[in-house]
Amino acid sequence: MSFVILKDIWKKFGQVIAVREFNLEIKEGEFIVLVGPSGCGKTTTLRMVAGLEDITQGEIYIGNRLVNDLAPKDRDIAMVFQNYALYPHMNVYDNMAFGLKMKKVPKEEIKKRVEEAAKFLGIEHLLARKPKELSGGQRQRVALGRAIVREPKVFLMDEPLSNLDAKLRVQMRSELIKLQQKLGVTTLYVTHDQVEAMTMGHRIVVMKDGIIQQIDTPLGLYERPANLFVASFIGSPPMNFLNVSFEKEGGELKVKGRGFTFTLPQEIGERVETERKEAILGLRPEDITIDAKLIQSHPEWVYKIRAEVVEPLGGEGLVYFTFSDRQMVAKLSGSHLPKAGEDIALVFNLKRAYLFDKESEKAILKPQRKDRNGN
Ligand code: ATP
User: Fold this and answer.
1) Which residue from 26, 39, 11 is spatially nearest to 188, judged by alpha carbons?
2) Probe target for ligand 1 pocket from 16, 47, 192, with the most ligand atoms within 8 Å of CB
3) Phi then psi for 213, rounded to 5 degrees?
4) 54 in ligand 1 pocket by Cβ < 6 Å?
5) Angle, helices 92-102/107-121, rounded to nearest 10 degrees
6) What CA–CA distances, in Å, run from 24 to 3, 4, 27, 60, 246?
7) The pTM is what?
8) Which of 17, 198, 235, 329 is close enough to 218 for a disulfide, judged by CB 3.0 to 4.6 Å?
9) 42 lines ligand 1 (CB under 6 A)
10) Residue with CA at minimum distance from ligand 1 atom 5
11) Dihedral (C-alpha) 98, 100, 103, 108: value to the nearest 10 degrees?
12) What's the CA-to-centroid distance between 155 and ligand 1, angstroms?
C-alpha cells in the first residue's frame, strides 16, 4: 500500500507554474529521488510535502491522512537541508535534542534517543562541540541525527550532500543509503545530480519544467528512457544523438544520416513505432566500442574515426570524435585507448540503439528491452 501519495498536485507562484499535474505514490520504506535541472520544481514539491509551501491544487496524503491543512510539525516528517541549518550557539547534543524539547518529550527519553542516534552516526565523541568546531561531514551527520531522533514517518532531504567535497559526498552517499536501509524510513530526496539519483533511489522521478518526465527504477530509466530529455539527462557522459531518416529496403530497416547508413537489427527494426520518416538515433558512449566479436559479426557497423580528445579515467577512458558533423563520445576500456589524433575503427552497437521522435521527442521503440540484469 502507498504510504505517501501526491495526487494531481499543482503549484503556481503568480503566473509561474512551478509544478503541474504531479502524481506519485510512494511505498512504505521506499527511497524516492526527485531529480532534474535547476528550476524544474523539485524543491517546491518537497516543500509542499513538508507543509512549508501551500498547494495550489491537489491532495497530499501521509500514512492515509490528508495533510493539506496540517502544519509541518504535525505531519510526522523530518527535513534535512543543504545548509544543515544547525543552531551555531548550541552544541551538538542540544542541536539534536532541540526538536524533541519543543515537543515536550521527557528528558530521559531525549537523552536515550540522542545518544542512540549519535552512536549510530559515529558522532558520540562530538556531542559537546559547537557546529563551528566540526568538519562539513560531521555537521551533515549532526543534521541527520537531528532528523533521526524525531523518529519521523518520512524523511525529506533537499540536496543534503551538495556542500561536501567530492570524496566526502561519495562516502556520505553510501552512509545515507545504509542508514535508510537500516531505519526503513520512507524517504523523499531531492538532487540535481543524476549520479546521486542513480546510486541512491529505489525509484527516481525525473522532472523538467515542473512536469514529471518519467518515474522508474535507476536501471529502468537508463535502459528505457521515455523521451530524449531523460535519455540525455541519465547517464554520464550523456547519450550520443544522430539525426536519421528511415528507409525500408527488402524488409530491412535502414537508418541514414549524413555520411552513414546503418541497417538496424531485425529485433529493433520490428519495434519501431512511427509513421514518420525521420527520427533521432541515440547510442550510449559504452555502446560505441572496439569489441572484436561485434566488428567481425557486423562489419557494416564499423566506421573509422579520428580520436580528437582522449580522457583516460583509469579502468576506462573517453574518446571524443566528430561523426556526421556531431561531437560524439565513446567509452572504451583503459587498456585500449588510442592517442589523440590517431585514427581508430569503432563499431556502433546498433543492438542497443534508441530512437526518438524528432518533434515530440518521445521514444519510438516499443519498450520490450530488458535491462542489463535481465529485468
Ligand atoms: P534548484 O535545483 O535550482 O533548487 P528546483 O528544481 O528545486 O531548482 P524550485 O526551487 O522548485 O526548483 O523552483 C521551481 C520554479 O518555481 C522556478 O521557476 C522558480 O523560479 C519558481 N519559484 C520557486 N519559488 C518561488 C517563489 N517563492 N516565488 C516565485 N517563484 C518561485
Assistant:
1) 26
2) 16
3) -90, -35
4) no
5) 130
6) 11, 8, 10, 10, 37
7) 0.90
8) 198
9) yes
10) 39
11) -120
12) 21
Is the shortest distance between the CB of 66 and ligand 1 below 6 Å?
Answer: no
Q: What is the pLDDT along the chain (375 residues), one digit of tens a residue?
A: 679 999 999 999 999 999 999 999 999 999 999 999 999 999 999 999 999 999 999 999 999 899 999 998 889 898 888 777 788 899 999 999 998 898 889 999 999 999 988 888 888 899 999 988 888 888 888 988 898 898 889 999 999 888 777 887 888 888 889 889 988 999 999 999 999 999 999 999 999 999 999 999 999 999 999 999 999 999 989 999 999 998 877 777 889 999 999 998 888 888 887 777 889 999 999 999 999 999 999 999 999 999 999 999 888 999 999 999 999 999 998 888 999 999 999 999 999 999 999 999 999 886 665 555 555
- Ligand 1 atom at shortest distance from the alpha carbon of 190: 7
Instruction: Select from 44, 45, 194 the residue to mutate for testing ligand 1; criterion: most ligand atoms less than 8 Å from CB.
Output: 44
Domains (ranges, CATH) in the chain? 2-232 (3.40.50.300), 241-373 (2.40.50.140)
* Cα(258)–Cα(254) distance, integer angstroms: 13
The residue contributing the CA closest to ligand 1 atom 24 is: 44
Tell me which residue of 104, 86, 103 sits closest to 95, measured CA to CA: 86
